[in-house]
Automatic annotation (TrEMBL):
Residues 1-37 form the signal peptide. It is found in: Secreted. The lineage of its organism: Bacteria, Pseudomonadati, Pseudomonadota, Alphaproteobacteria, Acetobacterales. Keywords: Secreted, Signal. GO terms for cellular component: extracellular region. The keyword Signal applies. The keyword Transmembrane helix does not apply. It comes from Novacetimonas cocois. This is Gluconolactonase.
Length: 381
């Protein structure tokens, strides 16, 4: 079967063509940048027998994680949890919200959580993709729809839920979100496009549908291997996204890369035609297959390279260096920059789960871990 290849040509990374790396090769040395300068080492913050795919740390140091439905592992547990000081997960906000399998009350329970993060309002926002499968058959018509759940961590109460049914299609898989004033930007990894939600009016719009900037059109690699799903090269459409610190730009990409950038004002302009909007989108950087990103207060992007097991730091001008390369960074996913400037990195081994293995069996090497690096970055919300 022909691999999915992009019809567009992109500049190579670091002046050379991106090629698959050999997993576990000796070049994976923690604590070195491309320039050879010492950087803070990876510190193991938490480990788990279940896959944790996202982490968010509150300004008072509370740690929250999410457990995706595809994570495998032999231990049942919550979809969203707060970690105790010893790393024990406590269902958050309570057990009922984490017991959909029993209650099937999708309005008051998490179905398939894919992302969590703190918003500028200090609330914990949870992205629940509902009964959706990325890259598979159409979502069940009567199945639970995607939604956002907003939790006040001071009270432990769910303050708001936002249904995303109005912006969903039969193949939608809502993946992640970012904030810009009263606007929410979300990625659809199943049916390529972005979702723009106006929190003042409640209006939801799909933009850049099936555009080259939101569509996965080239092979994905991890640990030197082509990523396979359902017997075919895996496709994960619009996935990572970040808003620039000044709020003027949205960076976004399919999981396979490359990364694109568009003015937030254009994306928020409901009167702009699809063609006019697409003309505002610009190529930014030829990122490799990526699990997760973060952005600091100086506008530097942190991008995981799932093939070479490293984290790239890309400046607003599009200049990249290797922040850290380490064989433990197997599919580094949704990263978080905490209030103290540390970078938190979940290494979730997605490529080793049964969904993405050729033999359909899990090859996870438990436990998985969340790492942190004391980089003294400027956080931005």
């Amino acid at each position: 079967m022909r691999l999915f290849r992009s019809p567009f040509r992109f500049p190579p990374i670091g002046g050379r063509t991106l090629l698959p790396a050999l997993a576990g090769a000796s070049l994976f040395l923690s604590g070195l940048t491309t320039a050879g300068a010492a950087t803070p080492p990876l510190q193991t913050a938490y480990t788990s027998q279940r896959v944790m795919n996202a982490v968010s740390v509150s300004d008072d140091g509370r740690v929250f994680v999410s457990f995706p439905y595809w994570g495998g592992g032999d231990t049942p547990g919550p979809a969203v949890a707060e970690l105790d000081h010893d790393g024990s997960p406590r269902p958050y906000p309570d057990e009922k919200w984490n017991d959909w399998a029993r209650t099937h009350d999708s309005d008051h329970a998490f179905v398939r959580v894919n992302a969590i993060r703190f918003g500028p309002d200090g609330r914990l926002w949870v992205v629940d993709s509902g009964e959706a499968n990325v890259g598979g058959s159409p979502n069940p018509p009567e199945g639970a729809k995607a939604k956002l759940v907003v939790i006040n961590i001071a009270t432990g109460q769910v303050e708001r839920t936002i249904s995303l049914a109005a912006a969903s299609t039969p193949h939608t898989y809502i993946d992640d979100l970012r904030f810009h004033g009263s606007t929410l930007f979300l990625t659809d990894a199943g049916d390529p496009g972005l979702v723009v939600v106006d929190m003042k009016t409640g209006q939801q719009r799909r933009v850049l549908e099936h555009a080259r900037s939101t569509t996965d059109e080239r092979p994905m690699y991890a640990e030197g291997h082509l990523l396979i799903s359902n017997g075919r090269p895996a496709r994960v459409h619009a996935d990572q996204l970040e808003v620039s610190p000044d709020g003027t730009k949205l960076y976004f990409q399919p999981s396979s890369g490359p990364m694109w950038v568009a003015p937030t004002a254009a994306l928020e302009d409901a009167g702009l035609s699809p063609d006019a909007l697409e003309k505002q989108v610009r190529f930014f950087y030829d990122t490799p297959t990526t699990g997760g990103t973060a952005i600091d207060g100086d506008g530097n992007l942190y991008v995981s390279d799932t093939n070479r097991l490293r984290i790239l730091r890309i400046t607003p001008a599009g200049q990249a260096t290797t922040l850290v390369a380490d064989r433990r960074l197997v599919w580094a996913d949704a990263m978080w920059i905490a209030h103290d400037g540390s970078l938190w990195i979940p290494a979730v081994q997605l490529n080793r789960t049964a969904t993405f293995e050729r033999d359909g069996k899990s090859h996870l090497q438990l436990p998985v871990a969340i790492y942190r690096m004391d980089l003294h970055l400027r956080p931005v919300r």
